[in-house]
Amino acid sequence: MDYRLVPARFSALPGWDEDDPTPLLAAMGRCRDHIRTVKSYRTGSLGITAGELLVLLDAAVDEKPVGAAAMRAFFEAHCVPFRIEKADGTAGFVTAFYEPEVAVKAEPDADHRYPFYRRPDDLVDIDDANRPAGFPEGYAFGLAKDGAVVEHPDRGEIERGCLKGRGLEIAYARSKVEVFFAHVQGAARLVYPDGSMKRITYAAKSGHPFSAIGKLLIDRGEIDAATVSMASIRDWLARHEDQVDAVLWHNRSFIFFKEAAVDDAALGPIAAAKVPLVAGRSLAVDRLIHTFGLPFFISSDSLTHMDGGKPFRRLMLALDTGTAIVGPARGDIFTGSGDAAGALAGHVRNAATFHILIPRAAAERYLHAEG
């Protein structure tokens, strides 16, 4: 492994005694219900199984601790913290994501011309079992055409109209930049003129690899690597309207969505763990390593704008993943929905320390391995 787990004490977790993890209780109950009634979470390479996690989740549902102190005492009783130490000695790293709110219309007009699309019926899931000879490695989707599977049209081809007339449009936005950033986030709340709201979440993608337009602008010398953020990228696009298409089409990956109701405006979209995200308490992790539903305590001295100038210290649940979230100490923090959440998310690129709280049902073998 390119990392190791170092046992720690709760007293060694910076700010542990000041954190209030009560928002996690309901989310833990939802994870437990999903595992028990729908489908178990896959075990990451770290080796913590959903069955071992269930011991913790069942206890949370049964004990129902009330208040910050009781919640901390619950985790102290049922988990052992381990610091994730990377082999190269570098720190962990966090970014953030959010759920945009986009004003839309159900039908296009002179101002609303940029659609969100549903998944096409000729999009094919690709894996090692059905990958055609010569098909690009890593592509998870392709296009069924004339009895074969070929590359699906990319972002540029789709935005130039190759899917028009197929009835795939969900709604239309004013700005292709707003649509693009909803693609990057993988979800959005659509707000209609009558005030009604609908949620769209990830359904599939074109198959092409994601290419960060921020990196493109850095490489071109357009944006300083030290200050790049979602806000600075948006600002550059607003000032260079004649170059928007070329820059956005650099990212050939295109996202297709499915529709969902907004049952609880306080909760985020249902993510990879198949439960709603909780603002400020949900973490996207590398699912090849970590099992969904596990608690992580994230601390960052440099991340201060999310807690009124104080260093970030929070217990979070692993509820999502993402193609850019790779490695044992790499996380993406869900900041919530709407513009304020976007403002928070857009400035998060910080070194962080990752502690994973391993349920005692599994912790013994990691203590033994360390010893």
**CATH class type of the largest domain:** Mainly Beta
- Round the Cα radius of gyration to an integer and report it: 21 Å
How confident is the prediction overall: mean pLDDT? Answer: 94
Unreliable parts: none
Largest sheet: 6 strands, mixed, barrel
What spatial order of strands do you see in the largest sheet?
Answer: 3-16-13-15-14-17
In short:
By secondary structure, this protein is of the alpha+beta class. 27% of the residues lie in helices and 28% in strands.
What does this structure look like?
The chain has 371 residues and is an alpha+beta fold. The protein folds into 2 domains: 3-96 and 268-370, RlpA-like domain (Barwin-like endoglucanases); 99-260, Beta Barrel (Ribosomal Protein L25, Chain P), CATH 2.40.240. It is built from 10 helices and 17 strands. The protein has helices at residues 24-37, 50-63, 68-78, 155-162, 176-185, 213-219, 230-239, 244-250, 339-345, 360-370; strands at residues 3-7, 79-86, 92-99, 101-105, 114-117, 123-125, 141-145, 148-150, 169-173, 187-191, 197-205, 255-260, 282-284, 295-300, 312-320, 330-337, 349-359. A 6-stranded mixed β-barrel has the order 3-16-13-15-14-17, surrounded by 4 helices. Strands 5-9-4-10-11-12 form a 6-stranded mixed beta sheet. Strand 7 and strand 8 (148-150) form a beta hairpin. It is globular, with a radius of gyration of 21 Å. The two termini are 16 Å apart. The relative contact order is 0.21. The mean pLDDT is 94.
Note the topology.
Blueprint lengths: L2 E5 L16 H14 L12 H14 L4 H11 E8 L5 E8 L1 E5 L8 E4 L5 E3 L15 E5 L2 E3 L4 H8 L6 E5 L2 H10 L1 E5 L5 E9 L7 H7 L10 H10 L4 H7 L4 E6 L21 E3 L10 E6 L11 E9 L9 E8 L1 H7 L3 E11 H11 L1
Parallel strand pairs: 3-16, 4-10, 13-15
Antiparallel strand pairs: 1-2, 2-17, 3-17, 4-9, 5-9, 6-7, 7-8, 10-11, 11-12, 13-16, 14-15, 14-17
